[in-house]
Amino acid sequence: MGLRVVVVDDHRLVREGIQTMIKLQDPSIEVVGTAADGREALALVESRSPDVVLMDLRMPGVSGIEATEIIREKHQKVRVIALTTFEDEDLVMQALRAGAVGYLLKDIGAPELVEAIYAANRGGSPISPAVAAQLVQKVASGSHAPVVSRHEDLALSEREHEILSLIVDGLDNDAIARKLYISKGTVKNHVSHIYERLGVSGRAEAMALAVSRGITPRREPDRQGNT
Q1: Looking at domain 146-212, which of 1.10.10.10, 3.40.50.1820, 2.40.128.50, 3.40.50.1390 is its CATH number?
Q2: DSSP-based three-state secondary structure for 173
Q3: CATH superfamily entry for domain 4-134
Q4: What is the CA angle 125-106-88, rounded to 5?
Q5: Helix/strand/coil for 22
Q6: Residues 6+ away with beta carbon under 8 Å from 225
Q7: Which residues of the chain are in CATH 1.10.10.10 domains?
Q8: At residue 82, what are phi and psi to the nearest 5 degrees?
Q9: Per-residue DSSP letters for 106-133?
Q10: Is residue 102 within 8 Å of 119, Cβ to Cβ?
Q11: Minimum mean pLDDT among 105-109, 147-151, 161-165, 177-181: which range?
């Protein structure tokens, strides 16, 4: 049985376009409904039980951020990906704090969108490279002063620093467990502690916050000694 997806956007052509993209790229993913605002989205989540919701953020009436927050509270297994035209950092953080597991721009290609849907369903946090780059640029320009400047200031263990860097690198818990040769349960415990220390409630928010604080993906040389 394929993944079940709901598409939410206040523009009909955008909804239809996203639905067509998904169908042509991967027919096994079923778009079980589309909604024009947050209120319709909540009704669809109740009636259709999707795995993933692609959520526009700026809509009349009940906004995408409000709808995302309600979905997180009432349907914790549903994964919401914010899908918008805006790269505004404040909007990114609002969406992630509301419970979105990822943040993508609407100019995303069909293969990348489908992969993001699968990644979100697996527990990953798909974030548009353009959004991540903007966060890094703000740090580099000094326009977003970091709360912490060193890993040590986060009061995390060495292993937790390692896991946080792998989260920033886009790995889900299964992939982290395989890479570090530890159990998935151990990874889950470390991730919960990281959330507590960062004061965040989800993976995507932890990723965005870590990037905005200057924490970059862990890079290792390959077996031939290249970087």
Answers
A1: 1.10.10.10
A2: helix
A3: Response regulator (3.40.50.2300)
A4: 75
A5: helix
A6: none
A7: 146-212
A8: -70, 130
A9: TT--HHHHHHHHHHHHHT---B-HHHHH
A10: yes
A11: 147-151
Where do we find the tokens 């353009």? 130
Burial class for 105, CB neighbours closer than 10 Å (0-12, 13-18, 19+): middle
Tokens 């031939």, residue located: 224
Pair of tokens at residue 138: 């703000």
Of the candidates 94, 92, 162, 161, the one whose C-alpha atom is nearest the C-alpha of residue 132 is 92
pTM: 0.69
**Type of residue numbered 210:** A
Provide the H-helix boundaries in 123-183: 129-141, 158-168, 173-180
**pLDDT (tens digit per residue) in 112-142:** 999 999 988 988 878 877 776 665 555 445 4
Model pLDDT for residues 31-40, shown as the tens digit of each residue? 999 999 999 9
For 215-224, how does the pLDDT look when each residue is reduced to its tens digit (9 = 90+)? 654 444 343 4
Q: Give CATH 3.40.50.2300 domain extents, the chain.
A: 4-134
